[in-house]
Amino acid sequence: MTMENVLAICMGLGLAAACGFRVFVPMLVMSIAVHSGHLNVMPGMNWIGSAPALVTLSLATALEIGGYYIPWLDHFLDTVATPAAIVAGTIVTASMVTDMSPYLRWTMAAIAGGGVAGAVQGTTVLARGVSLATTGGLGNPLIATLELGGSVFASLAAIIVPFVALALVVGVMGFLALRAVRNRVPVSV
Q1: Is residue 189 part of a domain?
Q2: How far apart are CA 20 and CA 43, in angstroms?
Q3: Torsions phi, psi of 58, nearest 5?
Q4: pLDDT per residue as tens digits for the range 117-157
Q5: How far apart are CA 58 and CA 154, in angstroms?
Q6: How many domains is the chain partitioned into structurally?
Q7: Do residues 49 and 35 make contact, with C-beta atoms less than 8 angstroms apart?
């Protein structure tokens, strides 16, 4: 595996993690980077840098961001966003890897990219649930702002410093795994 492939995988997984926070923000950042010539994607995925895709992703991003600040709509969006984040994470990961067989690329993208996006999205759903239970939903705008910041930061980091983005993804996933193990209730027979 070449260094370019490793960087591409790091970028893809960083963008996939960002899709777990917000589905459209990483795709918009990716679209801007491809459109401006700062990012190359696999053949067949160049459409993401087209002007129509840029306009569509901009509108979708604005609607998604706004929707998370409407109290009843944020929970509905979480329901829809979970499978959408997994699909988006798979697509952004696969689009970054150019020198790999299609079977291996899409398998890796579905397992790693979709898995990372799903894990991050699951964490945000839990955070929103805790916010609803403890604040009656009044804390949800804070959660929405933190998720948006996380998505923007992870998207930019994935493109600018992919190894750092991957390290952050691994660190967060490790933290969540350790926390889940520590909080596990022992099963009594």
Answers
A1: no
A2: 25
A3: -65, -45
A4: 999 998 888 888 888 888 888 888 998 999 999 999 999 99
A5: 18
A6: 1
A7: yes
Per the model's pLDDT, the better-predicted residue between 14 and 130 turns out to be 14
Those residues whose C-beta lies under 8 Å from the C-beta of residue 123, and which sit 6 or more positions away, are 20, 176
Determine, yes or no, domain membership for 186: no
Identity of the residue numbered 164: V
Asked whether residue 96 is domain-assigned, the answer is yes
What range defines the domain where residue 70 resides?
A: 3-181
- The amino acid occupying position 187 is V
In-domain check, residue 132: yes
pTM for the model: 0.86
> pLDDT per residue over 65-95, tens digit each?
999 998 778 888 888 899 999 999 999 999 9
- 79 torsion bin: left (phi>0), alpha (psi -120 to 50), beta (else): alpha
Instruction: Give the C-alpha separation, 143 to 149, whole Å.
Output: 10
